[in-house]
Amino acid sequence: MAAANGSTGKGFEVPKVEVRFTKLFIDGQFVDAVSGKTFETRDPRTGEVIANISEGDKADVDLAVKAAREAFDNGPWPRMSGYERGRILHKFADLIEEHVEELAMLDTVDAGKLFAVGRAHDIPGAAHLLRYYAGAADKIHGETLKMAQRMHGYTLKEPVGVVGHIVPWNYPTTMFFFKVSPALAAGCAVVVKPAEQTPLSALFYAHLAKKAGLPDGVLNVVPGFGPTAGAAVAAHMDVDKLSFTGSTEVGRLVMKAAAESNLKSVSLELGGKSPVIVFDDADIDMAVSLANFAAYTNKGEICVAGTRIYVQEGIYDAFVKKAAEVARKSVVGDPFNPRVNQGPQVDKDQYEKVLKYIDIGKREGATLVTGGKACGDKGYYIEPTIFTDVKDDMAIAQDEIFGPVMALMKFKTMEEVIQKANNTRYGLAAGIVTKNIDIANTMSRSIRAGSIWINCYFAFDPDAPFGGYKMSGFGKDMGMDGLEKYLQTKTVVTPLHNTPWL
């Protein structure tokens, strides 16, 4: 047990987590890797091995893509009515809701996520998103064209084909369904490469999809490593569309592989360094709470984490004091404990990366106000950390740390903070805290980011498109925009003879 500012005590029970699925899921069956290799997935609470997972590589990806190709080219899934596909997806969502507890446990032991949050939000949210797209499956249609000549023209919206999804480890369930839900609703067949750190829930979802009636080959899950399994998906000549969420550096490699293979279309959701901008007129307690929420949710392992906090000079000193008090009260410990606010980083590599950035912040001359240390005698726990005296060109203000590290900075005018907020290669999200609607409107139109949250943060919704500007990537998840990227438009034209109308 690790804790910031005191112990969490022993008054909770750690459930026994059963891992039921550890093999690859290809063409409707759980199978060993062609190589026979396995890899360890570890519990970040302790560093101990949870299970050995079949390690997919190029040979397994080839089999998965072949199954998906057959399911798309000759199977029933893309040929069903949208209504029929929607019914199966609703059944899939029913099964998720029946297994909320077990799925939340898997993401807790695999990713260090708070069990209570997974049970209340992540897993039900996945079912909700799946139902959103199940409802959209029978509403995909083209348009009748008003041609300038004696022709009848119309468009069809058709599924793009076989889709490769490479998903990250920070939200194993949420990101799985961000990608899979609209692709399935559109009528595509998919191959999912989950992160090697967090394969457990993805394999369970494959089991539930089969149980729901998804035809064999429509959903395939191939755990493995990025340079082998991930690279094979990105470069595969029979994958028609690629969706990747992860680092900007790997995003470049994915685009290169897509370009050098079959020029498959690509959508990328990459890094972020999102600003939260607090104006003098804000309620300071609300603003501190929101900034804490933005920076430390999911131990900072979230692409839209609000880790650059700009506070107007009139309330800056009071804000720093209150933010430090809130951070010190945050309880870090076992994510199964309902009193815990923050669990462990996902693995040893990420843990060491965050601690390295904390050291860099000190060396660059930022002032460490609170936190900054590892805690606990086992596992990958780090205290919520706040730096002040941060300059815009410091690494802790520019680089995506992906950990519980907040950089606090002061500003005078709206014009100044617009420049500061946009002084980043990323453009995923931003938060604005003000009671002035004119300030809110000006800021929301001036910041170059895909999501602007005014007096709130992490305001995700199935109907709200999400995706980045600049080096945060391109292509939207959620909303009808998220469905469109798995469809392509076909134009059909035929001559009209002796018609009285054009």
Set down the secondary structure blueprint.
Elements: E1 24-26, E2 29-31, E3 38-43, E4 48-54, H1 58-74, H2 82-98, H3 100-111, H4 115-136, E5 144-145, E6 151-159, E7 162-166, H5 172-186, E8 189-193, H6 200-212, E9 219-221, H7 226-235, E10 241-245, H8 248-260, E11 265-269, E12 274-278, H9 284-296, E13 306-312, H10 316-329, H11 348-363, E14 367-370, E15 374-375, E16 381-382, E17 385-388, H12 395-398, E18 405-411, H13 414-422, E19 429-433, H14 437-446, E20 451-454, E21 473-474, H15 479-484, E22 487-495
Helix pairs in contact: 1-7, 2-4, 2-5, 2-6, 3-4, 4-5, 9-10
Overview features:
502 residues; alpha/beta; 15 helices; 22 strands; disordered N terminus; Aldehyde dehydrogenase 1; Ald_DH_N; Ald_DH_CS_GLU; Aldehyde_DH_dom; aldehyde dehydrogenase [NAD(P)+] activity
The helix fraction, in percent, is 25-40%
What assembly state would you assign to the polypeptide chains in this entry? Answer: single chain
CA-based gyration radius: 24 Å
Taking the sheet with the most strands, its summary is: 7 strands, mixed
Pfam families: Aldedh (PF00171)
GO molecular function, one term: aldehyde dehydrogenase [NAD(P)+] activity
Domain Aldehyde dehydrogenase: 31-492
Subunit structure: Homotetramer.
Describe this structure in words.
Helices cover 38% and strands 21% of the residues. The protein has helices at residues 58-74, 82-98, 100-111, 115-136, 172-186, 200-212, 226-235, 248-260, 284-296, 316-329, 348-363, 395-398, 414-422, 437-446, 479-484; strands at 24-26, 29-31, 38-43, 48-54, 144-145, 151-159, 162-166, 189-193, 219-221, 241-245, 265-269, 274-278, 306-312, 367-370, 374-375, 381-382, 385-388, 405-411, 429-433, 451-454, 473-474, 487-495. The strands form six sheets. It has a seven-stranded mixed β-sheet, sandwiched between helices. A hairpin with a 5-residue loop joins strand 15 (374-375) and strand 16 (381-382). Helix 1 runs parallel beside helix 7 and helix 2 (82-98) packs antiparallel against helix 5.
